[in-house]
Amino acid sequence: MKSIFYFTLFTLFSFFTKGQNSNTYTTTNAHSHNDYEQNIPFFSAYYQHFGSVEADVILRNDTLFVAHQESDMHGDRTLESLYLDPLTAMIKKNNGQLFKDGNQSIQLLIDLKTSSALTMPVLVKALQRYESILAPKGPVKVVLSGNTPSPADFEKFPAYVYYDGRPEVQYTPSQLERVGLISQSFYKYTRWNGKGVLIEKDKEAIESVINQAHSLGKKIRFWATPDHVNTWKMLMNLGIDFINTDHVEELGTYLRNRTNAEYLSKEQYTPYQPTYRNNDSRTAVKNVILLIGDGMGLTQIYSGITANRGNLNLTKMLNIGFSKTSASDSYITDSAAGATAMATGKKTRNRAIGVDSNFVALPNLPDQLKTYGIQSGLISAGSMTDATPAAFYAHQPYRDLEDEIARDYLRSSVKILIGGGTERFIKGKVADSLRLKGVQFSEKWDDLKSMKAPFVLLDNSKIVSVQKGRGEFLIPALQKTHQSLAQSKAGSFIMAEGAQIDYGGHANIVSYVVTEMLDFDKLVGEAMRLADADGQTLVIVTADHETGGLTLLDGNIKQGYVDGHFSTNDHTAVMVPVFAYGPHSLDFRGVYENTEIYSKILNVFKKYSRR
Questions:
Q1: Which among 303, 335, 412, 413 is annotated as catalytic?
Q2: What cofactor is needed (predicted)?
Q3: Is 294 annotated as ligand-binding?
């Protein structure tokens, strides 16, 4: 009967631990290995809210020194001074709790380096003075490792003494009650160095021992594990209870950021199936739709592919190039310089809008295309006075001059603006001036259907994030703009920006990035549909730069699960992809400066436009 009971428990724990989501991990799952070697023993781990710390103890002359070997012993580095006294002080300070903001406990793993027979009497006597803070009475659980008493002698010592067990040892029920933790060397099961993934045989061996410990109701840790982010994530996926580390602050930061690092998609959509009408052809281009995923690099795209179970509208495009994004004064561009390069064909300084490096105004695409009778519209899921859309109509030395940027629209050739930034157009009476010029102006999204070009619709409620309820915005805005400008026989140019992929990168929140990426990709699908409908529309999809230095450390395409890590909260210098669909999409293959996007668009229009 006992064997059946344990088998049932084993099966249940196997089921639950294999499906454990790593966002359930917190710093309470962290173990500070050889904690006394930290610059500030105990407190480094304590302030990270670690769930376990380890202290090696050597007995000399009735004193319990904390040291790895005798040569490291110092008179002021004792078990009491480094651990028991600080624990007592913090618990007293927090009115009986380890932390004032919760009832967290901590495991104090004491590794006995000297013989059990000599060390245990002294240790028990020392611990007795702290019994009120020790489990089962208090929040500190003392677990002994190293030269511990034999299991048969466990019960000879007070109840506040627990022991570090081994997976291969068979304990009686009474002995098992005194086992506070199960540990083993990682290298007993694998020689994995932390790079790549575990081979299946080793993975199965490790999962088996974890499940065995869990079936007994015990937590488990491995010592001698590789100690970096890839290993931490692998251990989390395996369901380990304590992650062994010497890098206390790094692991603490990593674990505290689990919520921001992961995204699990709850639904998926079916991408548009393109007909590839006139794709790759050299036929006439009447309309160009330029879609800019602000901050969108290859990793952001692949996070979207993963979340949507392996497919995006972008993956249906066949012609792909790469854009080099540096500014005239910097290896790493910002949105102002990046968008100016695409809007004017000239590199400029970071923060500059529609001007060259000497702050001289440059003609932009909408103004250039006006000479051919081609009408333009701009859309953004952000403020229309922000850098990317502003570069297509404004001319200012600094992007933060948003009131001046708004006033520049009064001299612009752009027929339609849809986005946010209402306050900038209201302030300074730009909206009033537009109305006097016969331009419709609205602050209400519901007015979109009834508006007629030229018009400006700025509704700040529609530039919140997808996660905060933006809802349908980019697609209806594109449809309305395309429909309104289609009345021009000469053709149209539309720039639509997925602004908030960038916001998510700056915030270092994976879910923010992915949800905005998916929303932007749906816009890509609609643009492809419009291109197929007339066979004369060229769709270009690119980014002004990558934001966040996003890397994907883990994921599952079948589940739509993404785990990412950011190297910065700012932009990076990596090249960004350029996707193209429709006639002349072949022109966008290759590697080139971002200024070439302007030239390629202008050349396509010049080739077929008639004055």
A1: 335
A2: Zn(2+); Mg(2+)
A3: yes
